[in-house]
């Protein structure tokens, strides 16, 4: 079995990727800013990153933040991976990064390009939004009596554990370039997802759909972040909410 480094290995996705890889018998190192012995800020790089990559065959790059710095972090990681002789770099991206002019998406697309031009063997998987993210957004919006939603926007959320399983599978294989997107089983209006959340949580909120402005909103409204032809995910949003209610998460 191979030695695999998972960046962002304590996060929502990275933790599950790590668990799956270890269950499959791989030696896995977890890299994050606070996870010892490989506590590294990727934006800074340095000797700690070199140490983490020593003897590593494959890197699964899950570390990411909408607060900025992804491109710098990826550049540091790639340079150190080349120096360490890493064979395979696997990157998780987002469906629609090349179609929706949203700041975070632009950064993810830029990292995809860095990965493809890295000189390393590489694989990129794009996935739709996780159920967890949709829930976080809805919980934030429901803090006030009126739940205001972006009018005309749909989503296609996917179960994060399914994406983790696919990433682990790709990490164990040969570099494959850009692989087929992975999307959830249903394209849903954001309002239907909101009402499912309200029903599951027992909250009462007035739901209002508000038209927004800007190129990013137009991109989301046009469905640039959806992949109905790649609805390969199995778990629905309602099943996710039910599992949370049972204490499964």
Chain-wise SSE layout:
Blueprint: E1 3-7, H1 12-23, E2 27-31, H2 47-53, E3 58-61, H3 70-84, E4 88-94, H4 103-116, E5 121-127, H5 131-141, E6 146-150, E7 154-155, H6 160-172, E8 177-178, E9 188-189, H7 190-201, E10 206-210, H8 215-221, H9 237-245
Parallel strand pairs: 1-2, 1-3, 3-4, 4-5, 5-8, 6-10
Antiparallel strand pairs: 7-9
Task: Kindly describe this structure.
This is Nucleoside-diphosphate sugar epimerase. There is one protein chain. The protein is of the alpha/beta class and 249 residues long. The protein has a single domain, classed as NAD(P)-binding Rossmann-like Domain (Rossmann fold), CATH 3.40.50. It contains nine helices and ten strands. The two termini are 29 Å apart. The mean pLDDT is 96.
Features of the shown structure:
six-stranded parallel sheet, two-stranded parallel ribbon, globular, alpha/beta, Rossmann fold
Biggest sheet record: 6 strands, parallel
Query: In what order do the strands lie side by side in the largest sheet?
Result: 2-1-3-4-5-8
Total domain units: 1
CATH 2nd-level architecture: 3-Layer(aba) Sandwich
**Helix/strand/pairing category:** alpha/beta
Order of helices and strands: EHEHEHEHEHEEHEEHEHH
> What is the highest CATH level, the class?
Alpha Beta
CATH topology: Rossmann fold
CATH superfamily: NAD(P)-binding Rossmann-like Domain
Cα-atom radius of gyration:
19 Å
Low-confidence region ranges: none
Number of strands: 10
Helix content estimate: 40-55%
